[in-house]
Structures are given as C-alpha cells and as structure tokens.
Design brief:
Number of strands: 13
Number of helices: 19
Structural class: alpha/beta
Number of domains: 3
Shape: globular
Distance between the termini: 105 Å
Radius of gyration: 27 Å
Mean pLDDT: 81
Helix content: 40-55%
CATH topology of the largest domain: Glycerol-3-phosphate (1)-acyltransferase
C-alpha cells in the first residue's frame, strides 16, 4: 500500500490538472460566484434606492435559468407539440428549435455593463453630437408611477440614436430592456447589447413556435416587473411621419396583465431631432419603396472619423438639438377600457404625437414648403413665430426676445446643409432638397385648420 509508484511526468501533470479543475469547479468557483453574487445584490439594492422604478429580481436572474424556465413553460411546450405535428418532425427536434429561439431572445443583463459603461457611453455620445433637451414634465410623469408597477416605454423611432438618448435620459428611472431587431445581432455588438438587457426580435419571422417563445418571454418579463422599451412602429420612419403602431409586442404585454396583480403603465415617449444622422439613407429607401439601408461598416466608420477630425479642428458645429419628451402615462388599472390592443395602440400613438418635441429645423422646413416665394428675414421671423405657436407638441421654452436666435440657429444649420439658399436679402428653398425638407416637416404636427389652409394655398 505504501510502495512507491513511478509515473511519467506528463501523466502526473495531467492528474494534477484534473484534480485542480475538480477542486475549482466543486469548491472554488461556487464560493467565488457566491461572493460576487452577494456584492452584486448589495450594489443593486443601493442602486434601487435612487431609481424611480427599481430593478426587479427577474432581470437579475441567471440567463441559463431564464432559458430553462422559458422552454419548459407549459404554453411553449404545447407550441412545440403543435409545431412537431404540423411540420412532421420529431418533438425533440422542435424542442431544440425552441431552445435556439430562447437562447437568441433572452438577454444576459449586467448591472455593471449598463450603469458602469452603458450610461456613461450614452451620455458622452449624446452630448458630443447634440444639444440634448429634456422636457420639464418628464420627471413628474415618472414620479407618479407606483414603484411596483411594470413600466413600458412606448417610443417613436426616428434614428438609431434613439437607443442612446433614451438610455441616457431614463438613467435615473430604471434599467431599460429594449426590443431590438436583426441589426443588433452582429458580433461583437450582440454581446454588448445583450449585457445591456436588450432582447432580439426577428421582425420578419412568421413561425408560430417562434412567436410563442417570444410572447412568453415578454409576458414573463412583464409579470416580473421588468421595465421595457419598445418601438411599435416596427422600424425607423423613412419619411419622418409617425406610422400606425403595430400590435405584436403590445398584445403580448396586455396578455400578461392581471387585474389582481401588477399594474402595467405605458409611458409615451416622443423623440425628435434637428438632424437625423441617417436622414438621406432613409429618404433614399422611401423613394425606392423598400426598407434596405445599405449602411456598410466602412461608411459608418468613415463618417465617424470625419466628424472626429472636424471636432479636433474646431469646425464641428454639432447636429443641433435632440430631445426626449415623456407624455402622460397610461395605466391599465386606471383605464381598463383601453385594454383592447387596437384602442391602446391608437391612444398611445396620439399621446406620442402630442408630446413630440418641436425644433427649429422641422418648423422652418414646414414654413419653406408652404411659402409662396422667397421670404425676407422680417417676414420669415413673423411667420415662423406664428407657426411655432400653432404647433402641437412639446415646444421648448423660447421667449419673444430669444426667438430670433432660435430661428437663426436653424437657418444656419439648413443653409450649411444646402437645404435653403439666400438670394439677396431673401431666403428660398432649394428645389432639389424638397424631400429632405418634407422629411423634417413631417416630424411635427400643426393645428389642422392651419394645415388645411396651407394646402389650399399650395
């Protein structure tokens, strides 16, 4: 028993390695995970003290556990059986398909990535490109929401910068879980986006099994109190108008509502810009009649380097104003009559429209489109002020004394981009840029009687 046994060195090293891995996996790793898990729980508890809507335990659940919970959900299990019968495949094959869908959808939220990196990066990027405004009523609207309610931010979709702006401006409220499309599935962007709590959606998928897995995830998240952010238009607006809301995700959320359980509060969010980064790409897609956006990574990087070089030389004037405005929240418990998804979608769309920020470029674009001819500076100021007061939306606080500066900044921006030109002492629209002016004018609403009168004049 105590005799010496000789072993080759490579075999001895292999035994030690196996022993070390076994020790680490059974004793060391669980202790380390427990240590960091406790630290994370304490950090989240401190974070929840300053958030308007606390981070719920559902959002902090391990991704593996969430995937298991999702694929073994009774409704998903039934959908697997139906899929197997309808497509003449074995149930284990359909089960693996559901597992793949679940792994694709379920995020791996990291509070450190979101609040340690994401918020800082969003703040830096937003303030580097835009003069960011926030409506005065935003904080008040959020404070009135019960802390135990599930909050769903419902937003119009103008630009990919929407994610950045809302993440930055809603940082004091909670950690948002975004529904993102196929564009975000590119590695390594996908890993970062999942760590920020976003979940992927195949917008063109029509399979019943996929839709059931997605629906159950959204419903479980809603029941668990996860703060969500959705773009019900289904994609970027290619002509600047607010499109009718699609009802897929909204219907999933409503189906999770229990009158005896958590309230669900929808917060309308209106986003607008003096300049949308992708405006010409979107207009070109609209003119072609498709939704293909050929923005290659080389083009994006080239644009970023160009802006960086201008900034170093002090010639980058920024892209103007950008704003996020929260509308009046809608509670399902307080207004059960809007429980039908069609009524809910129409009501939320109206609230988003009435909260839309009004800026100088969209305002002047509307004015130039309906002008009878060149405008003198005096006439332009007079008509712009009158039109400004008839806009429907969230108007910035601009006094009569500061209004000329508000208009001049927009004029300079439009002139720099070649949207308008100055002929002697008069301003006139560049005919070739009419689609660009129409795109920005479409982002705001004017009182109906003014619109009708302008149309009749034209």
């Amino acid at each position: 028993m105590w005799q010496t046994v000789e072993l080759p060195l490579w075999f001895f090293v292999l035994i030690v390695l196996f022993a070390a891995v076994t020790f680490a996996s059974h004793f060391l790793f669980p202790s380390v995970r427990w240590f960091f898990r406790r630290r994370l729980e304490r950090a989240v508890a401190r974070l929840n003290e300053r958030l308007t809507v606390p981070i719920e335990p559902f959002k902090l659940a391990r991704r593996h556990d969430m995937i298991q919970r999702l694929i073994y959900d009774p409704e998903v299990s039934q959908a697997i059986v139906v899929h197997a019968k309808e497509n003449d495949v074995r149930e284990d094959v359909a089960f693996q398909m559901a597992r793949r869908y679940a792994r694709e959808i379920v995020p791996s939220f990291s509070a450190f990535a979101y609040f340690g990196f994401g918020i800082r990066a969003a703040r830096w990027l937003a303030n580097s490109l835009y003069t960011v405004h926030t409506a005065t009523q935003n904080t008040a609207h959020l404070k009135d929401i019960p802390s135990d309610a599930t909050v769903v931010f419902v937003m119009n979709h103008r630009s990919n910068m929407d994610y950045v702006l809302v993440t930055y401006l809603a940082a004091r409220a909670s950690a948002l879980s975004y529904a993102v499309g196929e564009w975000a599935r590119v590695w390594p962007l996908s890993r970062l986006i999942k760590s920020m709590g976003a979940y992927f959606i195949r917008r063109k998928s029509r399979g019943q099994l996929y839709r059931k897995v997605l629906a159950r995830y959204v419903q479980l998240a809603t029941e668990g109190g996860v703060t969500q952010a959705i773009f019900p238009e289904g994609g970027l607006s290619v002509d600047g108008t607010l499109k009718p809301f699609k009802m897929g995700l909204l219907s999933y959320v409503i189906d999770a509502y229990d009158p005896e359980g958590r309230d669900i509060v929808f917060v309308p969010v209106a986003i607008n810009y003096d300049r949308v980064l992708e405006d010409r790409v979107l207009i070109a897609a609209h003119q072609r009649g498709d939704r293909r956006f050929p923005a290659r990574i080389s083009v994006v990087m080239g644009f970023a380097l160009k802006m960086f070089w201008k900034r170093i030389r002090g010639k980058h004037m920024g892209f103007g104003a950008a704003s996020v405005s929260f509308g009046q929240p809608l509670s399902l418990r307080a207004q059960p009559d809007v429980g039908a998804v069609e009524l809910l979608a129409a009501e939320l769309k109206e609230r988003v429209e009435r909260s839309m920020p009004v800026f100088g470029v969209p305002l002047l674009a509307h004015l130039f489109l309906h002008a009878q001819g060149p405008l003198s500076k005096a006439a332009l100021m007079e008509e712009a002020e009158a039109l400004f007061r008839l806009t429907i939306g969230t108007r910035p606080r601009v006094s009569r004394d500061s209004f000329p500066g508000f208009v001049n900044a927009a004029l300079k921006r439009m002139h720099t981009r070649g949207m308008i030109i100055k002929d002697d002492d008069h301003w006139v629209m560049v005919a070739a840029e009419q689609p660009l002016l129409q795109y920005y004018a479409n982002s705001i609403r004017i009182a109906p009687d003014v619109e009708n009168a302008a149309t009749a004049k034209s």
